[in-house]
Amino acid sequence: MVKTPTQPITLEEFLKLPETKPSLEYIDGQIIQKPMPQGKHSAIQGEFVPAINNIVKPKRIARAFPELRCTFGGRSIVPDIVVFTWDRIPRDENGEIANTFALPPDWTIEILSPDQNQTKVTKNILHCLKYGTQMGWLIDPDEQTVFVYQPKQETTVFDEPDALISVPSFMSELQLTVRDLFAWLL
After folding, report:
1. β-pair partners for 62
2. If DSSP codes are grouped into helix, strand and coil, which group holds residue 186?
3. S-S: 26 plus which of 14, 44, 54, 74, CB 3.0-4.6 Å?
4. What is the pTM of this model?
């Protein structure tokens, strides 16, 4: 995680900046660059988005998006995966998916990269929960562990291979064990 050296700017000024790779996030008045995703991160993200969408998109229940900027509550963040229930997906005047998502996701999923600060990522998940997100996941590929966060509940740790990982209620058809999730790395 790199903090970019700049004079303090407002969220509105930040949103006018050009997009970068890896993405910049605006957190507590600071611009922070996300680390470049590496192999394990990319493998999990690449498998997980279609796994979610194959279940919920055809039924118009929800939709998963990789690396989507979400701006709300004074922050502009780019979680690794966000899921929005169908009726909450912002649409433009043509009924197509909007470019700007100025609301929290229903489910936020972060995949820890080796150079990423776990505290910073956890704070982003907690920020999402504070503003209405139903569930947040922090996936740690190196530890083969998933931390599940829910509003006003104790964090649940999933690290046993046969443990079925908790999902939001709208994703009840997704039956994913710790073993299944980390098998995407093989």
Report:
1. 85
2. coil
3. 14
4. 0.94
Q: Which residue has 């991160």 as its token pair?
A: 41
* Residue found under tokens 């562990």: 145
Contact 176, 182 (CB under 8 A): no
pLDDT of res. 6: 52
Q: Which residues of the chain have pLDDT under 70?
A: 1-6
Beta pairing, strands 81-85 & 62-66: antiparallel
Question: What's the rounded Cα separation, in Å, for the pair 26 and 39?
Answer: 25
**Which candidate, 119, 155, 115, places its Cα nearest to that of 137?**
155
C-alpha separations of 138 from 79, 92, 135, 163 in Å: 10, 31, 10, 16
Cα distance between residue 153 and residue 97, in whole Å:
32
pLDDT of residue 115: 82
Q: How do residues 144-154 score in pLDDT, each as one tens digit?
A: 999 999 999 99
